[in-house]
Amino acid sequence: xxxxxxxMMEGGGQLLRMATTYSAVLTEPIRVYNIRAGRSxxxxxxxxLKTLEAASEISGAKTHGAEIKSKEIEFYPQEINGxxxxxxxxxxxxxxxxxxxxxxxxxxxDKTVKITVTGGTAVKWSPPTPFLTNVxxxxxxxxxxxxxxxxxxxxxxxxxxxxxxxKVEDSSRIMDFNPHHQGIETIYxxxxxxxxxxxxxxxxxxxxxxxxxxxxxxxxxxxxxxxxSSEPYSPGxxxxxxxxxxxxxxxxxxxxxxxxxxxxxxxxxxxxxxIKTGAEVDLHTCDHLILxxxxxxxxxxxxxxxxxxxxxxxxxxxxIFTKAKFQVTGxxxxxxxxxxxxIGLNRQR
Length: 349
Description:
By secondary structure, this protein is α+β, with helices and mostly antiparallel strands. The protein has helices at residues 13-26, 46-59, 95-107, 129-142, 199-214, 260-275, 283-295, 309-322; strands at residues 2-5, 30-33, 62-64, 72-76, 83-88, 113-119, 147-153, 162-168, 186-194, 218-226, 236-243, 249-253, 299-304, 325-329, 336-341.
């Protein structure tokens, strides 16, 4: 059994999600203690519990301590099983963070996995679904992890209620990740609003487009107003941007009292600042890539626009579970080169 101190380094839900994923794919029991010990509401929250329950079902695991506010859990995985699953987080908890845990597990299943999840599709402190599909999962597909997502309804804070359907194909192995740096010409994006006037999404897009064009990029931003059966239960807006090459993206959420123009400008300026670093991978996508790179066949190498504590924590966990060899050139909160010699984990057939 591998024991993980849940208060180490970043000290949040990421530690539990990654540890659970590694446990399932490696069939290695874990004990995680001091879960979210430094947070204002320590222990398991509903979204963390639902993620643990979902991983348990897919991997046939037995668990101890899986309850709200629990600060210690044990997870005993067995065989990963494909098939159809459905999970309701029950709050506006992040769907994408739940999927961060489940997708690598599903990729090592014995057949296709289809997952329906209800919760928040665009909430604070997590990537919105357009970012996941157009940046993170585009990188995953380059590594041989075939995953697709369809949004039936967006879910915003506080009610949530968003619904997505995800399909993950079984994969015998994960390939290394070595993006070749290419010039960027066009920035794509989507500006979304629901239960709000349509001009909110239009103004977000217009503001972002202005910033991007000023820097010499073409901007192709779709505008989506959610109505009818796709209308969210709570009002909300977001904009997500991504580059035509490389794996760089950004996003910004609307908030009460925050002008739509500010939302669009924030997303554009964040992406522009990352492009200027010459990186192939943005700061948020980077920490999603550490786990699959550690399991991959071959050596992965890429430059990230900013070395975050989330990424540093992910690397330390990868070392604990896999003994993968990492080399990081760069300082925290600065651009950095990351190289990872993966362990070449293949699914036993």
